[in-house]
UniProtKB/TrEMBL annotation:
Subcellular location: Cytoplasm
Designated gene of the protein: apt
Species, as recorded: Maribacter confluentis
GO molecular function: adenine phosphoribosyltransferase activity
Protein name: Adenine phosphoribosyltransferase
Family membership noted in the UniProt record: Belongs to the purine/pyrimidine phosphoribosyltransferase family.
Length: 170
């Protein structure tokens, strides 16, 4: 099964000029969901992970599945005001402004070996903000992995100090 065939392009979403990579067909197919999870795990072969960090919101899909298979904890990183306990935040640049992410202050312990996971690596801003949050709490980034990398946006350059793995590149 070719996973790429289950990812469709949605033109002009969420705004004019953007081609959105829609993974819902992949998620709806049980065999593809299993194959994707196994393939993402294979990107981590030999790595010891304590926590998997997933970014809102599509990082919440495969992040917990990976955490379960790795016998690791799952840590959500969310938009401001969405986490109920004390948080720290990181603001980062977008093509059209800024955005902010938050993590619970007690989510990562000093020395935790962390996998950063998200569905798409585009410009790298979200991933870099997540890495900074984890490191502020004393975590060690073992790897950043992504289902999809849009390499024409050069996001990997922003996080090139870390090990970066992507399952599918465009």
């Amino acid at each position: 099964m070719e996973l790429r065939s289950l990812i469709r392009d949605i033109h002009n979403f969420p705004k004019e000029g953007v081609v959105f990579k829609d993974i819902t067909m992949l998620l709806q197919n049980p065999d593809a969901l299993k194959k994707t999870t196994v393939a993402l795990l294979n990107l981590l072969e030999g790595k010891d992970i304590d926590k998997v960090v997933g970014m809102e919101s599509r990082g919440f899909i495969f992040g917990p599945l990976l955490a379960d298979k790795l016998n690791a904890g799952f840590v959500p990183i969310r938009k401001p005001g969405k986490l109920p306990s004390e948080t720290i935040s990181e603001t980062y640049e977008l093509e059209y402004g800024t955005d902010t992410l938050e993590i619970h202050l007690d989510a990562i312990q000093k020395g935790d070996r962390v996998l950063i996971h998200d569905d798409v690596l585009a410009t790298g801003g979200t991933a870099m903000a997540a890495c900074k949050l984890v490191e502020k709490l004393g975590g060690v980034i073992v790897q950043c992995n992504f289902l999809i990398e849009l390499n024409f946006l050069n996001g990997k350059e922003k996080i090139n100090e870390y090990s970066v793995q992507s399952l599918i590149t465009y």
